[in-house]
Amino acid sequence: TAGIRIFRFGPCQVSLSMTEIRAGFNAIKANIQARDPIRTLSILSYPHSLHKVQSSDRCCITHQLFDFYVEKVFKHCQTEDSSINRKISSIANSFLSVKRNLGQCREQNKCTCGQESSEKLKQILENYEGLNVTSAAIKSLGELDILLDWME
Amino acid sequence: SGELSCSLPNPRNVHFESVNMKNVLHWSAPAGTGDGVLYKVKYSVYGVGKWIRKPECKNINRTWCDLSSETSDYEEQYYASVKAFLHGMCSDWVETTRFNPLTDTKIDPPMVSVSSTEKSISIILTAPGKWKKSPEEESISLLQVYPGLQYNVSVLNKKTKKRWFFSISNSTLVVPWLEPGTTYCVSARIRVTTPLLYSRFSKEYCIATLKDK
């Protein structure tokens, strides 16, 4: 399929339909971000940007982030707009398969987790739990491009 | 002190217009206000608490404000906001949507230079540079910003009107097996796969292959 990107994290390799996900996100971005009135907090980037993450932990953090989105974000992002919901579930399905592939890498010890990844995940969860679930999920979904930009 | 009443209609269509990451805030005057409206501008980095005023855009009567310098870190995302003033009245602050310089900028076409031999033409393409504060500042090519950047090149035989399309990642292309003494016209555009960004096609650059000796 057009727009399939192969991401290599050392011995671990996963493919992701990045163009499809980006297109899906662009279609819902304005709607979802408009539902998030909180400018002063970013789930993914506060207090430190994802871009500061050391490369050695990228695989583990990527897996943790995909797990976070599958388990804590997509399922809490139901809107009253069915077309928005369809786009969200399409993105969720793409994330689910990548989460599984990265999970297999971790089982095969191809995706090591260091202190930095656990600290980063802890920070993200703290930011997430600082809001009510729906607000936190919508804000996280509105930040999907931050994750995609960082991955690329 | 003259307390301002904020009953003035709001500025409209407040949005960023961005080309090669030169990020300029634009808006339209409030409906029905005519001349004399002044504006203030502030901006904020998404996820960071405070709004920051833009002094160079305080009490201005134009309807744009260059925030390129303030939004030059493309790993961040931004909001900007505008407030209008007229005859002791003011409007509300009106915000943009969240602005992501990486995905929300437009890209200019590449620069194209062509040369020819008897049976081939050589094309050199140069991606535009990211906006920079001053000419002395080091140039950053958009190629560095978008590693997946590619060029779509169109080559037209002016005589036969036959056209070829090429998609290349590096910046040089040699088109062989051409007809001597014939004019070919080249045009190119930039394509970034993700985030999906296209430039316009450049204008056409025509060159004739050398005549047979």
From TrEMBL, chain A:
Q: Name one GO molecular function term.
A: cytokine activity
Listed GO cellular component terms?
extracellular space
Spell out the disulfide connections.
C12-C105, C59-C111, C60-C113
What role does this protein play? Immune regulatory cytokine.
Q: What is the protein name for this chain?
A: Interleukin family protein
Membrane-spanning parts: none
The UniProt keyword set, sorted, is: Cytokine, Disulfide bond, Secreted, Signal
Record's InterPro entries? 4_helix_cytokine-like_core, IL-10/19/20/24/26, IL-24
Regarding protein family, the annotation reads: Belongs to the IL-10 family.
State the encoding gene: Il20
What coarse category fits the chief subcellular location reported for this protein?
secreted
Quote the subcellular location field of this record. Answer: Secreted
